[in-house]
Specification:
mainly alpha, 2 domains, 65% helix, elongated, disordered N terminus, disordered C terminus, DNA-binding
Length: 330
DNA sequence: GATGTAAGGGCACACGGTTC
DNA sequence: GAACCGTGTGCCCTTACATC
């Protein structure tokens, strides 16, 4: 095997040494593999299929041979192709590399999307992890580009897909919040609304639902910032998280809503107001609150007999849920 | 998917305060 | 004092949810 042409791996190493940037190396390798295709006038789909099949077998010697042959095809050899330009110039600037790649794409009648697709497909098959990494790098790089970012605003087809993604992430966060915090879980009759620590609850939302937190903070940011905002409405995120949670799981994520409802009724808020707030999804229904209060009246006597247990207002991690109520948490 | 439970909705009735 | 209005409560049925 020593007389065989340079193996693909050696060839890749050599190309890499010629072109310093890894991404450009990939382009050159891809470009080399596709040079032969452009000479055979296949359809675009066929081209990509063949490119993919070539790229998926980087270790086969045939690939190396055909690649080398491709560079010697009449079409490629007739004029100096952009491929040759890249591989023969040892020290090219970034701009020159981009121009050479641009020439290549025009030469093959490829779009930038075709190039990206071929680049991503190099990681398919046995190398899904690589493909994921490439996809992530590509998306992150594109999102940093202002023009591309603006495209997200303009292309309506993208909005629904992005919203679906955000909803999935937010629902997962709400699920996390429900499982790992007391305040956003099922109602705990040992808790009292007046003992809630708003700041601590807010931190808890930030910890377990960072995307929701970021979303609410971003959307509710003052339209005209003048120095430090005077009123930060720290409880806003708690109420919004509670509304979402109650909508998701009214039986098992109703703690805050019910505490608030009971508290408002204790303050003398009338049925019509409670019903109105219930209509907005802020608190439980009037009847539910009444039932709960009736239920609370009986056990509260038992509690007083057993020694008063202070209300739990900690909304910390789920690990705290098993511990005995601690007054320090209030 | 079946099942038990809790919550919600609709309705009716009683009670108290206000208005005419 | 009658009529009206708002509130509180109870009953029954349906629906939604959690659990197995």
């Amino acid at each position: 095997m020593s007389s065989a042409p340079a193996s693909p791996s050696k060839k890749r190493r050599r190309v890499k040494s010629d072109v310093e940037e890894p991404s450009t190396t990939t382009v050159v390798t891809t470009a080399t593999a596709t040079a032969q295709i452009s000479t055979h006038h296949h359809s675009s789909r066929e081209k990509r299929r063949r490119v993919k099949s070539n790229l998926e077998e980087p270790s086969s010697t045939t690939t190396a041979v055909t690649t080398a042959t491709a560079l010697e095809t009449p079409a490629a050899a007739s004029t100096e192709t952009p491929t040759a330009q890249i591989s023969t110039h040892h020290h090219t600037s970034r701009e020159e590399k981009l121009q050479a790649i641009s020439k290549l794409l025009r030469h093959w009648r490829w779009t930038f999307g075709d190039l990206c697709l071929a680049w991503l497909q190099r990681g398919s098959g046995k190398r899904q992890a690589l493909k994921k990494k490439k996809s992530r790098d590509l998306i992150l790089a594109l999102l940093k580009d202002e023009v591309f970012f603006k495209m997200f605003e303009e292309v309506e087809e993208l909005h629904g897909t992005l919203i679906d993604l955000v909803i999935r992430l937010l629902r997962a966060e709400l699920d996390d919040l429900q499982r790992k915090t007391v305040l956003f879980g099922s109602f705990n009759k040992e808790m009292n609304f007046t003992d809630l620590d708003i700041e601590k609850s807010r931190d808890s939302v930030q910890q377990h639902a960072p995307l929701l937190f970021q979303l609410v903070e971003g959307l509710s940011q003052q339209s005209r910032l003048r120095g430090n905002p005077r009123n930060r409405h720290t409880g806003r995120i708690i109420l919004i998280a509670s509304i979402f949670s109650l909508g998701r799981a009214r039986n098992t994520a109703n703690c805050f809503a019910r505490l608030l409802g009971i508290h408002l009724q204790d303050l003398g808020v009338k049925r019509s107001v409670l019903s109105l707030l219930h209509g907005f999804g802020i608190i439980d229904g009037y009847k539910t609150i009444n039932r709960q209060r009736a239920g609370l009246a009986e056990p509260s006597n038992e509690d007083s007999d057993n020694g008063s247990i202070s209300a739990r207002a900690d909304v910390g991690d789920g690990g705290d849920e098993d511990k005995e109520p601690d007054q320090d948490d209030v």
